[in-house]
Design brief:
Blueprint: H1 2-35, E1 38-43, H2 54-58, E2 62-73, E3 76-86, E4 93-99, E5 108-112, E6 125-130, E7 133-137, H3 140-146, H4 149-156, E8 164-168, E9 171-176, H5 182-223
Antiparallel strand pairs: 1-2, 2-3, 3-4, 4-9, 5-7, 5-8, 6-7, 8-9
Helix pairs in contact: 4-5
């Protein structure tokens, strides 16, 4: 009798869990359709693109209920990925990734809320608290140049429900809690897109300044070289 009741209770909990999962999946799929974006049930290889943030903390895992789309910004189109990160059979967070227009193969910067356990990664150095978050970076001098007041303001606007955001190569990523609503995802996408804009604008300015210096050196070498 008792075992029968336990089995019935277990079946009811399992059914309830499946119902919640189906509702979540349906909501994500409908949101993707409204956006004109692509929805995929799973991608076992997508998470291998990254190795920091929650990917390092929880494990590579797989991407579930994946949405793939693009944002149209003043700097051009940006690819975005939104997915449930499932490292060990159940989702641990929702990862939102926005691709930059300018890549940097060596860039790694993590921004953690102070109440989160920090990763034990010998390749990352702590830069202390910047704004509302603790910053870890692979190359602190490079990261320090990115941490402008505008960047810090944008990072602070991510919200207290986002335990970590991070920059990795040409991506700006953040982890949101499981069950996050499409409306919250929209706000998070806007915040990450703003950060990507700031980084790309700065990179474009540096490239332009470098080109100007190169042109100036070329002009000076031609102008002041000995005449034959």
């Amino acid at each position: 009798m008792i075992s029968g009741l336990a089995a019935a209770a277990g079946a009811a909990l399992l059914a309830a869990g499946r119902g919640q999962q189906s509702a979540h999946q349906r909501e994500r799929r409908q949101w993707a359709a409204l956006r004109g974006w692509r929805f995929m049930l799973t991608d076992p290889q997508l998470t291998e693109r990254w190795s920091h943030g929650v990917i390092a903390r929880d494990g590579t895992g797989v991407a579930r209920d994946l949405v793939i789309g693009s944002l149209f910004t003043r700097l051009g189109r940006r690819v975005v990925h939104i997915f449930d990160h499932e490292p060990v059979g159940h989702a641990s967070s929702v990862v939102v990734a926005v691709q930059r227009r300018v890549g940097d193969a060596d860039l790694v910067v993590e921004l953690w809320l102070p109440d989160q356990p920090l990763p034990q990664d010998a390749q990352l150095a702590s830069m202390g608290t910047v704004g509302d978050r603790i910053v870890l970076a692979a190359e602190p001098p490079k990261a320090r140049a990115l941490l402008t007041p505008d960047f810090v303001f944008a990072a602070n606007s991510l919200g207290a429900d986002i335990p970590v955001a991070w920059l990795e190569q040409d991506w700006v990523l953040a982890a949101a809690p499981c069950g996050v609503t499409p409306a919250r995802l929209e706000r998070l996408l806007r915040a990450l897109d703003e950060i990507a804009d700031l980084l790309d604008t700065a990179a474009a300015g540096d490239a332009s300044e470098t080109a100007d210096r190169t042109d100036l050196r070329g002009w000076a070498a031609n102008e002041f070289s000995p005449r034959k």
